Amino acid sequence: MQVVIELDEKLVAEIDAVAKDFNKNRWQYINDSLQKSLEQDKRKRKYSEEEVSKMYEDAYGKFPVQPDEFEIEDEQMEEFWKQV
User: Fold this and answer.
1) What is the extent of the structural domain holding 18?
2) Are 81 and 43 a contacting pair, CB within 8 Å?
3) Is residue 71 part of a domain?
4) What is the pLDDT of residue 34?
5) Which of 5, 51, 69, 81 could make a disulfide contact with 47, Cβ separation 3.0–4.6 Å?
6) Helices 26-45 and 9-21: crossing angle, nearest 10°?
7) What is the per-residue pLDDT across 7-32, written as a single tens digit (0 to 9) for each?
8) Are 12 and 20 in contact (CB under 8 A)?
9) Is 82 domain-assigned?
10) Would residue 23 be called left, alpha or beta, if left means φ above 0 and alpha means ψ between -120 and 50 degrees?
């Protein structure tokens, strides 16, 4: 199926550069990226707010917050959702 979307020129240039690094064309890179994002979002969606809160509580119980940890919090959240 063909879908037409409008992207910022700078974003397209960045996509092309990264895709090249992974030996992919633009279509492959965007398709793979959207598929990964969709899978993550579907995993997030299947848990209730209470379940997610409990998962965070358990995770922080096992791995307490360390000084300067919030600088890498986004990376940790990405890893967290990959494991769910």
Assistant:
1) 1-66
2) yes
3) no
4) 96
5) 51
6) 100
7) 999 999 999 999 999 999 999 999 99
8) no
9) no
10) left
